[in-house]
Amino acid sequence: MGWTRNVLRVNLTEGTCEKEPLKMEWAQAYLGQRGLASKYLVEEVDPRVDPLSPDNKLIMVTGPLTGTMASTGGRYSVVTKSPLTGAIACSNSGGFIGAEIKNAGWDMIVFEGRSSSPVYLYVENENAELRPADDLWGKSVWEVDELLHAKHQDPRLRIACVGRAAESGCLYSAIVNDLHRAAGRSGVGTVMASKHLKAVAVRGTKGVAGIKDPIRFMQTTTEQKAVLAENAVTGQGLPAYGTQVLMNVINEIGAMPTRNMREVKFEGAHKISAEAMAEKRESDGQANLVTNAACFGCTIACGRISVMDKGHFTVENKPKYWGASGGLEYEAAWALGSDTGVDDLETLTYANYLCNEDAMDPISFGATVAAAMELYETGAIDDNITGGVKFNFGSAEALAKAAEMTATGEGFGKDLGLGSKRLCEKYGRPELSMTVKGQEFPAYDPRGIQGMGLTYATSNRGACHLRSYTVASEVLGIPEKTDPLVTDGKPGLVKAFQDATAAVDSSGLCVFTTFAWTLDNIAPQVDAACDGEWTAERLLEVGERVWNLERQFNNAAGFTAADDSLPKRLVEEGANTGPAEGKTNGLAQMLPEYYEIRGWTPDGVPSNETVERLRL
């Protein structure tokens, strides 16, 4: 059946944990994970709720293929209303805890209310209870993981928790599981901490029962693993270099956002690239990159495991950062590096470690530091505000100090924890915030990759590359090559990517599979696992339904077509170099056609016909 058909509802106010049946009519319409949890949130939460009030809910959710033998079937998501954006948030994570939740017998865990004191949720199969976490409050993710494993004496216990940043109110705090995998964006960790929920610890030994056709499921998942293995990206590039394979590629085409997106090419990219991570250091003969790593059931293994130079100024007297931990991936390397102008690989690794240790989104953190650096260099803030730290572009010392301050919420770190939109508004320069709907941009300049501008502007959770990765087509030629410098055809391309990605996110699989797979590869796996008939066409309809449901939530929360916009810098200032030199993003040309293709009114609202067709 794919689903366990069980929901664990945790009322933090009352301290209760109760089992209830999954609403299967919703599962048939929204499949699982992103789609299904969004449906629960829309039905149960007022879109205008204060994200940090007890009335907001936090949902940890798996997909029907999570925990199965399908490649990359280790994903889970966290769905809530975002404190960073005020929009619907769905943050996806890998690692092992998603499969553990599923193997404990649960499709999703719904958290509601707020505990009067810190607690953590302990789940062992069908048994679930809230336990005191006063001793865990104020501790980092790494410390909590160690303490809970020691307390329960179970090395296979899987833990997801928040760090000190969330406790201090950092609006882009993540939920980190398995030490360095994260539901990273939109401040889902901030919501979790606001509920005084420090951690979720899960042990599941029941296995995934009820696959509709086990033999066919085994056959089709085996066939699709072969497709991944034979693909140049999923079988070679990602295992060898991870997402960092993109660093030099994006830089060379002039689409690398640099120094708060003032420039489109970073002269230090080669120093922080995948190739640089693999080079051995002269100091100790050790490379920054130790090995790749895989999440549960993954045959791609794009994860990075790194070690730091023990003599580097950031860790010279801090032994806990000498051990191997989650290394840089492309988005983190870009945000911490190119966007701030810092080309010191070890400093980037250190800042990334702190983002892992205290559960901060490295994209929003790095982009906020970049905005602070421009504020500093233009005189909007000074040493009195930054606590004496000189926030100049290219300063490794400033980046390291910023990470330390933000992780603990001390000094100027409290301001950095607001995110770049609120930071720039506070100091009178709102135009310096490179955000959409309050969320910071990822690592692709939309002047050099036009489709990404429309992707960012229309993303339901604020600026995001994982809602419609048109880079695949515009740069990599997947599934077919389109010209990154033109706007023609991009509205249809963006819609297709958005709908397909929403379907993949709802299945329990990783979106990286789509470098090799289409929905024609995914549908047979879902069909063999789940009740009903699941075709590629049905999955695409599920994706479109999810996208429109999220849009309805945001419209009800107060968002309008005016929020489908880009910062003036990107639509008024041309790229300074590269193939896109002199070009701005053509959002104004693309947006009306996008609304029409979506079946929305000119003011960005799903039409009555669209609502009826999708049975919303």
Walk me through what this model shows.
The structure is a single chain. The chain is an alpha+beta fold and 616 residues long. It folds into 3 domains: 6-203, Aldehyde ferredoxin oxidoreductase, N-terminal domain (Aldehyde Ferredoxin Oxidoreductase,  A, domain 1), CATH 3.60.9.10; 239-252 and 258-433, Aldehyde Ferredoxin Oxidoreductase Protein, subunit A, domain 2, CATH 1.10.569.10; 450-613, Aldehyde Ferredoxin Oxidoreductase Protein, subunit A, domain 3 (Orthogonal Bundle). It has 25 helices and 17 strands. Helix 2 crosses helix 20. The longest helix is centred in the C-terminal third of the chain and has 22 residues, at 536-557. The mean pLDDT is 97.
